[in-house]
Write a structure and sequence with these properties.
This protein is α+β, with helices and mostly antiparallel strands. It has helices at 11-21, 53-64, 95-114, 140-146, and strands spanning 3-7, 31-32, 40-45, 70-72, 77-82, 85-92, 127-137, 154-156, 158-165, 170-178.
Length: 180
């Protein structure tokens, strides 16, 4: 099962981001993320044992009970790869919230590994993906335009276990763990 652990932004943040990026949707060569799929990935697993999803959900609940909510916001933009040849454009998470999400990512990757997963070991950058392309494309102007974005603050109160249905380009939330 292809899945990930993520923070799902509240509806008002999703709507705000969608309204901000909508005028850029005509830029050729970029596929824009669907607002219903916006998330902040903490741990990604390309092939998690489906039969162990309930076990992982319980472990995430235990982990979440020992965490407290915190405030975050999205501000600024970036891309993976060079601005001349990028495959992904994102909105960034700045400051203390980025540090907390990085800690959570490390902890949740270790937790997933203990429960049968092989989380992606790539470096972690807290972000919300807004556009992708299959081949590297110039992204500098888009990043510059999106860099002016700043969301209202929002509370990070849950971590979700989400199944990625790649062929259908949609996500299915399997479990939500609330932090206290």
């Amino acid at each position: 099962m292809r899945c990930f652990l993520a923070v799902l932004p509240p509806r008002e943040i999703i709507d705000d981001v969608a309204a901000f990026v909508a005028p850029r949707h005509g830029v050729e060569g970029w596929r824009w993320a669907r607002p219903e799929n916006y998330h902040l990935t903490l741990a990604f697993m390309d092939d998690y044992p489906e039969g162990r999803a309930e076990e992982l959900a319980e472990a995430i609940d235990d982990w979440a009970r020992r965490r407290a909510p915190f405030e975050a916001r999205l501000a600024g933009a970036g891309c993976f790869g060079s601005p001349e040849r990028s495959k992904l454009i994102y909105l960034a998470v700045p400051g203390q919230a980025a540090r907390r999400l990085t800690e959570w990512s490390e902890q949740l990757r270790a937790l997933a590994a203990r429960h049968g997963g092989r989380p992606d070991g790539a470096g972690f950058t807290p972000h919300l993906t807004v556009a992708r392309t299959n081949r590297g494309r110039p992204a500098g102007r888009l990043v510059q335009a999106l860099d002016t974005y700043e969301s209202p603050p929002f509370s990070v109160e849950q971590v979700a276990l989400v199944r990625s249905r790649l062929a259908e380009r949609r996500y299915e939330v399997l479990h939500r763990a609330s932090v206290f």
